[in-house]
Amino acid sequence: MLSHLLKENASVTVSTGNVLNVSDLRKKAGQKPTDELVDCLRSTFAEAEVVESSGSRLVTRKNNDLLEKMKEHTRTDIKIGAKIFLNHYSETCLTEAVEKLFETLNVSYLDNLILAFHPRAVESSAGGETNGEVKEGIIEWAVGSDNAVGNLRKLWSILEKYATDKKIGQLGIADLDVDSLTDLFEGSTVHPTITQINLAACCVVPPQLQEYCSQNEIQLLTHSDPQELLPRLMLDDLELSAYRAAWTTRYQVHIKCRGVLAAKGFIVSLAHN
């Protein structure tokens, strides 16, 4: 189904556009994050429009109303938040993910951006937790990974530059234990003001983490995202066995005064294995 879309390009980016305007997807509210992403990709491929640019290939949805939705309100009237999922250390991939987000939304400023970096993600057959089980009250990040915090700091420095240039308002991080969060916070010039923990662990929030966030004015939020959002089995199911997800971004656009979700979508970079 996808061979005519992807061929043998070294770089393929898939942009779902605004998935809120797709009736089949609206009927599936409350899905698990991986299932939602897979359905959005499948729907996009079914109505695909392909754009060639500088040796890369962009696959998006025909009749996508994302930019129209963005133009319905002034930039000051909307709030744009995004989360980037990265399962291997790559400064190039992180930069590409941020720039592609700006390009897709046709904006020069994001209100907040959260980084989910899990360098030791192990493939999961069901798209569930991958870096070991998530245990209630316990947060373990990058267990067994060499120099994970050092690599995270390098990635963070890229985001810091965007924040310093006033292109991103707030920076956040997902799933760090208190020691790793402390290392990141104390080693950064633009501190994380948001940290996310998985719902499976939040019923008993680790007291040290809660105290540290309170002392340093870090907003502590919960999420239900797996550590690997697009695992191997799901790529196989999408007929993408020859590819891996280099990075994935999920974005949401809210109307500030009403708190209404105006647009939502995913951007996925596919690289050959």
Descriptive overview:
- With 273 residues, this protein is of the alpha/beta class.
- It has helices spanning 3-6, 23-26, 33-46, 66-71, 91-105, 148-164, 178-186, 199-202, 207-215, 232-237; strands at 11-15, 48-53, 56-61, 78-86, 110-117, 168-174, 194-198, 219-223, 243-255, 260-272.
- The longest helix has 17 residues, at 148-164.
Oligomeric state: single chain
**Main pleated sheet:** 10 strands, mixed
Question: What is the alpha-carbon Rg in Å?
Answer: 18 Å
Order of helices and strands: HEHHEEHEHEHEHEHHEHEE
List low-confidence stretches: 121-133
Name the shape in a single word.
Answer: globular
Give the strand order, joined by hyphens, for the main sheet: 2-3-1-10-9-4-5-6-7-8
Average pLDDT over all residues:
87
SS content category: alpha/beta
Distance between the termini: 19 Å
- The tally of strands reads 10
Could you estimate the helical fraction of the residues in percent? 25-40%
Q: What's the number of helices?
A: 10
Beta content: 25-35%
Question: What order do the helices and strands come in, and which of them pair?
Answer:
Elements: H1 3-6, E1 11-15, H2 23-26, H3 33-46, E2 48-53, E3 56-61, H4 66-71, E4 78-86, H5 91-105, E5 110-117, H6 148-164, E6 168-174, H7 178-186, E7 194-198, H8 199-202, H9 207-215, E8 219-223, H10 232-237, E9 243-255, E10 260-272
Parallel strand pairs: 1-3, 4-5, 5-6, 6-7, 7-8
Antiparallel strand pairs: 1-10, 2-3, 4-9, 9-10
